[in-house]
Write a structure and sequence with these properties.
The chain is of the alpha/beta class and 152 residues long. 32% of the residues lie in helices and 24% in strands. Strands 1-2-4-3-5-6 form a 6-stranded mixed beta sheet, covered by helices on one side. Strand 5, helix 2 and strand 6 form a beta-alpha-beta unit.
Amino acid sequence: MSEFMYEGKRIHYERYGEGEHVLLFAHGNTASGAMFVPLMEAFSSYTCYLIDFMGHGQSERISAFPPHFWQDQGRQLLALIKEIGKEQVSFIGTSGGAIAALNAALMDPSCIHSVVADSFEGERSFPPSMHDFEQERAASLQDRAAIAFYQA
């Protein structure tokens, strides 16, 4: 189990594979790095890092998310790059993790080799989806498929 401190909070990450090129995987909101574990065999020729963003997965819980959520997650990715001591990495981000990866690349392009951004809606969430966000999260706690996803 690996972790580092970010703004006084413990951030969890896992390392997989061995290779010259470093891939940093960024999960979407409500998920964790565990969602990428089934892919690690396919990426075994790379050194891969799976982060659990603050408040997600095995990282420390927080009472509220920061106002600039995806920018803060971008800073968490940059902090992980510093923690692992790598000069250049490639990001693979999905959903909100794609937005975080793009933000990290914009904040410090010197340490980013490339970004793969998958399944994200853009800079700002659509108002209807944000309006129902808390209700959807509460409902997912009763949904067996959602529970299995979160447990994974």
